[in-house]
Design goal:
- By secondary structure, the protein is mostly helical.
- It contains six helices and no strands.
- The longest helix is centred in the first third of the chain and has 41 residues, at 2-42.
- Helices cover 75% and strands 0% of the residues.
Length: 177
């Protein structure tokens, strides 16, 4: 049973890392698009729709960064409050994870639903690119699903082991006595 838990932990950590790598890829894509826009202006060409594509990449980068950032302690958390809870910190952390997981699941549900309906209705962007809008929405839907999984993962881990998967930052790690 323990080996199965270790495999699941390794798989989830790999998924969160892969999400972070995808986020970095989309950040590099933003850079590439900006350089393309600059070169197009210098040489008298146009890059139609490039602003929209940069926006799509920014959204994808943001949503794919969520699960990776959560597990590396990079999200803004209520660490100051949790540190001051003393022996009740475990319960405070659990409450925060429960509320966060519930909200993330709710958001993921509607992100998937919105993406589905954009696909079904063949909704296209209003810009020059005329991209089917479900394509950039897909990154948002996947990102919100992954952050919901990460929050539920950490809640379950907190319940069963008393620990989370968060790697605390230096300021959060300092215990207030």
């Amino acid at each position: 049973m323990m080996a199965m838990g270790g495999k699941i932990r390794k798989f989830l950590d790999t998924v969160y890392l892969g999400s972070g790598v995808l986020s970095a890829f989309f950040m590099l894509a933003i850079l590439g698009i900006i350089v393309l826009q600059m070169a197009a202006r210098w040489f008298g060409f146009q890059a139609p729709g490039s602003t929209s594509y940069a926006g799509y990449c920014m959204a994808a980068s943001s949503f794919f960064a969520l699960p990776y950032a959560l597990n590396h302690g990079a999200h803004i958390r209520v660490g100051l409050l949790l540190n001051n809870l003393g022996r009740w910190r475990h319960w405070g952390e659990g409450w925060c994870l429960l509320v966060g997981a519930g909200l993330a699941t709710y958001f993921a549900r509607y992100a998937v639903k919105g993406t589905y309906w954009s696909y079904k209705l063949n909704d296209i962007s209003q810009g020059q690119d005329a991209t089917p809008i479900w394509i950039p929405q897909l990154a948002m839907a996947i990102g919100t699903i992954l952050v919901a999984i990460a929050l539920w993962d950490n809640l379950v881990r907190l319940i069963f082991t008393g620990e989370t998967n968060f790697r605390e930052e230096a300021l959060d790690a300092a215990k207030v006595e």
